[in-house]
Amino acid sequence: MPTSLKKRFVLWIGFFLLTGWGVSAMANAALGTPEDDALLDRWLHAQTNLVTWSSEFVQTRKFPTLVNPLTTPGRVAFKAPHSFRWQLGEPVKTVAVRLTDEVLIYYPRLKRAERYPLSTDAKGPWKDAMSLLDAGFPRSRAELEDRFEIVKMEQRDGVGLLSLVPKSLRSRRILTRLRIEFGVQSLEMEAAEFEFADGSLMRTAYQNPSSNPELPDDLFELKLNPEVQVLEPASK
Amino acid sequence: MKQPLRWAVWLAAFAILAMGVVRLRFDADVLNLLPEELNSVRGLKLHQAHFEGAAETLITLETDDETTAENAARSLAGQLRSIPERIASAEWQSPFLENPGALADLLAWMWLNRAPVEFGELTNRLAPERIDQRLEWIKETLSTTFSPNEIAQLGRDPFGLSQVGGGGLDSDVLEDSEHRSKDGRFRVIHVRSVAPLEDYHECAAWIDFLRVQLDEWRNTQPLSKGVSLGITGGPAFVAETALGMEDDMRKMTPMTAGAIALLFLLAHRRIKPLVWLLVLLAVALAVTTAFGGLLFSSLNAVSLGFAAIMLGVTVDYGLVLYQEFKGDPRAGPAGALKAVGSGVIWSAITTAAAFASLGLGSLPGLAQLGLLVAIGVSVGAFVILRFYLPFLSARSDPARWEAGATIVNPGGKHRRFDRFTLAMWVAAMVPLVILGVRGFPPISISSDPLKPVNSGAMSVSDQMVERMSGKRSPLILIVAGAGETELADCLTRLDARLRQVKESGSVSEFLLPNDLWSRESNRNRNAGAVAIINDWLPQIRKKAGEAGFSEDSLALTANMVAAWRRAANGGVFPESAEVSALLARAFSRSDAGWYALGLVYVNPLERKGIADALNGALAEGHVYVAGWDQLGAEVMAVVQGDALRIALPMFCVVLPMLWFAFRSLSELMFCLLTLIGAGTMLLATMSLFGWSWTLLNLPAIPLLLGLSVDYSIHMQMAMRRVGNHWMRAWRTTGVALALCALTTGIGFGGLALSHNQGLGDLGKVCATGVLSAWVMAVLVAPRLRATFRGPGSGADRSGGNASPKPAGPSRAYGAMAWKFGLSVVRLAPGPLLIRLGRCAGACYRMLQPGRERIVRANLLPLVGDCEERARTAARELFASFGQKIVELWQFEAGIPPTVRPHREKDWNRLTDAKKGGRGVLLVTPHLGNWEVGGPALTRRGERLLVLSNPEPGRGFTEIRKLGRARWGIDTLIVGDDPFAFVEVIKRLQDGGIVAMLMDRPGPTNGLEVELFGRPFYASIGAAELARATGCAVLPVAIVKEPTGNVLKMMPEITYLRAELRSLDARRQLTQKIMRDFEPLLSQYPEQWFQFIPIWPEPGSR
């Protein structure tokens, strides 16, 4: 498979994960007006109080190769500092779980799992994508700006819109822009939108988010049956 | 030799040497130093010769941020691309990133070369009746998958066309890892020249050109600020290595010559001898270089080191000769030559033999070096011996030399065992202690000695490896096959083998271009399926549109089908330049075969083991590991295998040479002691300073051997001449050798500054070896000799001749050699044996200079005391003697000789002499082949009795008698038997014929007469027999002329028998006989075979 394409889509995964926990964490940008800037600081401050977070969502994927967008419902759960769980489809078709030093993606219907290591010696475009998340929950503007250039922070109809661009040229060649939407009053994340270099767009609209809910620990574990085939695509 | 002929020979020699110089080329490829049969050497050579990557120049850029790095790389590549007349390509990123459309061409190529079964599965996937279901599945997957692979592929490649083969080189090439580091701050631009870079001069010019471009870019582009640039790659290495070595060679020879000049001036304060010495050294160097051109045509980098070694050794001969000449100027050049000439010759022979034995080794570089030094030392010795002192003494007043002569204190008090000797002994123990404590120096199997020191290209390369792949440098595999199918099979087998090795953990990753390889048969068999897919394409488009897929999703599919269609129609396939370039990097084809390139990433700790891991494939000769890491170990294994092969013949040659040089067991032992001691000192020094034996410092071993022998021969000979007085030997030869060691040591020491790490090692070890040899040969061994043998013992009473003066016949003249000769002449063809005999005679002369001197002295009166004529005659005499011996063997073995009389009527002289029943006494000197005249007489019905002295050794006399008896010739041994003459008298009184030799009397029958105006001892036997019997005395001789053996019978010598009662009358008769021979001896001096001194010194008898 052409590696350039691989790289591009690896960052799609980064997007999913970002939207899981980090989208809300990334929005401490510097902005057009002092009010916007203050809003970003408020939002970033709110993230420091976030220990767990969960939400339902509807994800819309638009591809240049498809005439119509694809829409899928799902659920996401986050636990500081790094744990998350994604479920796509109803019934569940895909599960992504962040373990200590890897991300495990499981396809129940196919009885197949893919393991992506996040250790320091992991290599390849997947690692690039994961590195966007690896910084953890951003607690400061400096941490956010270490990875992203804050392009714009604005408010529209009670929604804060934070536009970011990856600082890494390599990442930027695939992911051209990232936009996070959160409530100005609630400081709850409402949506995240990724724009890719090939014109694809992925938007996740969150519904019924819940801050610091009680989440069972086993939610962030994934026990696979022996018959599940486990692959390591990143090691190829 | 006549003057015109001599000129013609000189001209021819000059022309041949000039041809050698014209042929000469400098070979800077370090791989040519190594045995080509080694897997890694072959692999590296194949890689360099056949793969485009080896010819690429790599320009590296590094900045603090990746954006600047990318922009800078793009900008610089753009500038380079703007010079298309010089630069063929400047690739700053993967060509497939610059032109993604080429991917379809690449995938089409890979698919069409797959097996028909796999291509059939693809065809089925595209069948219109199946694609509805597939497109639905793709949409569902795209909406739910997290898999980057699926997301990446499915939208643009709904039919999985990019899933071809098992990955490998394709994915590696598509990765941009060849052009950028992971963090993007380090970039590499691959640059190729339009014109092929044939030699290192062109490589150097190309690198200079690139440097100018880089400077220009830096000066004109603001974004170049903060960008650090570097140049590496094949052409940069070649230019750097070769220019460095060329520079070394250019500096080293003048440095050596300068050291020689400086030290010579300091020691002797004379210009003329220095100038002549340098001129002759230059001549010897030029002649040797021309020989090198004739023999090898190209001289490699290491063998160019011969110049320093040869100069270092040859200058010794000049210095020793000059010191001797200066020490005793009254003896003149001849005296100095007489004193040290044989030592120089033996030293040259042993040194040359030691170095020539390197030719038996497997390393071409060392073999060439060894042969060049052997030639150089031989040429140098000849030039110095033949010309140095004659040139030096020409038109010079000997008194001048006397004035500057070193004064040797003849009366120096000599102690057999003094404090200095004790200190020497103690010092000699130090190396043993060091070796005992620190052990022997290790043998390094690294290939680092082949690399340049402080190499810019190398440091850039190391930096590149570190930045681009985290210090993971892959092994390059070259896979070879005789044809397309064989190479495909090899790749398949190797792929399977590497998978096994990967499972074992030795290999972390490997890339083979299996999926890229052309398989024409598969392409032909897949043509039918291509036609079907082409027919389906409109339906595929329609169904995809109905399923919601845009035209973009089918771009890859459509482009691939178009490429297949083009291939089926005989068009260019693959079409894109990017794919062609990719294939050219992965494959190569030549008349010798087809080659493919693979990469293997090995666990660093197991790099050495890769050869074992791939043993099966390597053994079949289809896979070559082109890695420098393996090279050192492989070459060192060969070197260790060579050790016995070289050392054994070396010692087999050198030891007999030393024996011939000294002819003394004790002196031979002192020489060996020098050798062992010098070796120990060298090893101890190496151990002390942490040096290792490497690939390139191994020539130090024969050099050490050669110089130890050289110094030892000179010093032992000097000790012999001065009666073991070390101080006297030191003041002449010792001082000269100190100068030699210093000049040679400095010459080699200069190598330590070489651009090449290996040459630097060689210089350090050789300089240490030279000084070690000097210490042992001059300071330690002679003191030991003086201690054991005491002063005054062993002095040459002849006053300085290095070799003892031969007093008797050669030791080879004996029964065993004679029997061997008699057997050989019965089997081998006569003309061949005659030639071999002449050659053997000439060789004997060269090996026995003392014997030649005697012969020349014997011949001087015959040629009017002309040295030149005597030398020429002596040369011919040895060859003639070899021929005579062969003819004598033939005669004694029963092969009839041909002898014709000078004039037929000469026989009448014999007939007249016999008249009246008188016996006839035939007298002859040792002129020509007198023995073969016997059958001429017996054929005429005469019976001949030959008088002879007993032959040396048991049974030899009987063999000779038997040989004559075969022709009816009787022999009477007249040595010590007092009654022998009774029988002779009886035979003469009976009218018989007796033959005897006149010019070599026994101890009791010699009588002083005059020959050529000089006192000469002739046999009185003829006169005594005449007195006793009144026989006719007839002088005869058998001489060799171009037409064959000619019998010269001179008129009978008349005498009054009654007068012979007085001794004076008998002396006069003897004188008369000898005087009759003078014209013949003058005419044929080269046939007067006298090998012991014949002219008595006044009062000696």
Describe the structure.
The complex is a heterodimer of chains A (236) and B (1101). Chain A has one domain (3-235): Clam (outer membrane lipoprotein receptor (LolB), chain A). In chain A, 24% of the residues lie in helices and 39% in strands. Chain A is built from five helices and twelve strands. Chain A has helices at residues 3-22, 34-48, 125-134, 141-147, 169-172; strands spanning 52-62, 70-79, 83-88, 94-98, 102-107, 112-117, 148-156, 159-166, 175-183, 189-196, 201-211, 229-231. A twelve-stranded mixed β-sheet of chain A has the order 7-8-9-10-11-1-2-3-4-5-6-12. In chain A, α1 packs parallel to α3 (125-134). Mean pLDDT of chain A is 76; it is low at 1-30 and 131-137. Chain B is α/β, with parallel strands linked by helices and 1101 residues long. Chain B has four domains: 41-235 and 456-628, no CATH class; 270-406 and 417-443 and 632-789, no CATH class; 815-881, no CATH class; 900-1087, no CATH class. Helices cover 60% and strands 10% of the residues of chain B. In chain B, α7 packs across α20, α11 runs antiparallel to α28 and α25 (628-662) packs antiparallel against α26 (665-689). The longest helix of chain B has 35 residues, at 234-268. The radius of gyration of chain B is 42 Å and the shape is elongated. The A-B interface holds A 1-6, 8-10, 12-13, 16, 59, 61, 63-68, 70-72, 86, 88-89, 93-94, 96, 105, 107, 114, 123, 125-126, 129, 168-170, 200, 233, 236 and B 66-67, 70, 96-97, 100, 103, 139-140, 142-149, 151-153, 155-156, 158, 162-163, 167, 171, 174-176, 182, 184, 548-550, 552-553.
